[in-house]
Amino acid sequence: MTTQDSASSESPPMSSGIENLDEHVLSTGLMEAISQGSALHADLGLPEDIKKALRNKLPRFPEAFQKLASITREDLVRWSDLGEIIESDEKINARLIHLINSPSVPIPGKVKSVSRAGSLLSTPRLLDLAVLVALTDTYDRARFKRIALLDMLELVRHSVLTGIIIRLIVTETNPAKVDSFQAFVAGALHDIGIYALVSLMPQTYQAILSRQSATKRSLVATEREVLGCDHAEVGGTYAALLGLPDPVIESIALHHQSLEKAENRLTAGLVALANRLANNAGVSMIPKAVQEPMELSIKDVVRDIRPEWARADVSTAIFVRHGERINVRLSEVNSQLNVLTDTSEFFEETKIPIPNGEETPGEQSAPESVPAVFPVVKPLVQRHKRRADDDSNDFVNYVVPGLHLIKSDEPLEGFLLLFIFSFCLLGLILTGGEIALTIPLVAGVMGAAVWNIFTMMRD
């Protein structure tokens, strides 16, 4: 037996020093073998130690996010309650208000409170924005400086896209006992176990990612080989310690396992399915991630929700039906993430290149199995730019059609709109009430006003 074998087989579970799991892995002599993809004859057997470490030193999770994730019925949420939850965390509240006032969220005028935003946005949209802000705030970039193979921005995109796909499916199929927001939250948090593992043992998780890259096995299989558990199980434990609702806990814990014994089978199945679809679309924290075969229990859930999807390739069936809407939503998320990352310390460091010549997540192409209707979406480039002095002129922009376009980078459309409006308005003044001329001129004025509102919402 080699020294490595002896160290791995004789290493007892940790009994003390739980706060530093990396030191325990280093003491076994396995860290180098894990990083290099060398053969391992025994895993570290850490599940209980990881649970103890979670209990002793719970990774940071904002209380406002915890309350948002605990909402079980979005149709019962009032703007005042939502505002109170978000305003309890100054940082999340400030960033959410900043995001809502940015061009990436098309609303008239500016808002100074979440309650005011609630009167202009639908409750689902406001909740989704709040979860996006809270998720980026939770994943503190400083914790991942040394994790070269972990792109946290891609992890956020993947998590939110998983929730978006779930929302679209639930909205269309309306499965019994599944709340669309709770399912969205479960999807957005399904990989929170990765965050917990990086927080508890960054060096070991970097070694696991290096091993996955070298061996080309799935991340879940590599985690189980090294740790004796995977990020889904750790995420379920973490969610339980945070006191999140049972459907969310179970969906996180089982999104890489069989769902046969799940109490919240439909929600858990939707999370597992949407996670696969997001990866199939090329939105993944690991470029060209290897996936294990789809569990039969997931196919059973698909069959219960929409039988025709189970008779065809699930990815193709869903992307053909929802691909354009998913593209639009992901473009919005990209634009919103640009706003958030520009105004925070979240991604202040230069992006760390992935070694061994692998593609960076931003350069990857979608797998061949993904239908062309769902291309990987690049960050959205805004078509129109607001000037700083435009903030105080929103009312004038609405009253005078074309004015905001003249101030943008496409003034010709604005001049045309202003000309039509002015010509028709002047005609009304000069015609003296002749009915034959009044009707088309009124139509011209109203058309210009509607066109103006449409372009402002578009921009």
Describe what you observe in this structure.
- The protein has 459 residues and is mainly alpha-helical.
- Among the domains are: 140-363, Hypothetical protein af1432 (Orthogonal Bundle); 388-458, no CATH class.
- 60% of the residues lie in helices and 0% in strands.
- Helix 12 (192-200) crosses helix 13.
- The longest helix has 29 residues, at 314-342.
- Mean pLDDT is 77; it is low at 1-18 and 347-393.
List the helices and strands and how they pair.
Blueprint: H1 3-10, H2 21-28, H3 31-36, H4 47-56, H5 63-69, H6 79-87, H7 90-100, H8 114-118, H9 123-138, H10 152-173, H11 180-188, H12 192-200, H13 202-215, H14 219-227, H15 231-242, H16 246-253, H17 265-280, H18 296-305, H19 307-310, H20 314-342, H21 394-399, H22 403-406, H23 411-431, H24 435-458
Helix pairs in contact: 4-15, 5-6, 5-9, 7-9, 9-11, 10-11, 10-17, 10-20, 11-16, 11-17, 12-13, 12-15, 13-14, 15-16, 16-17, 17-18, 23-24
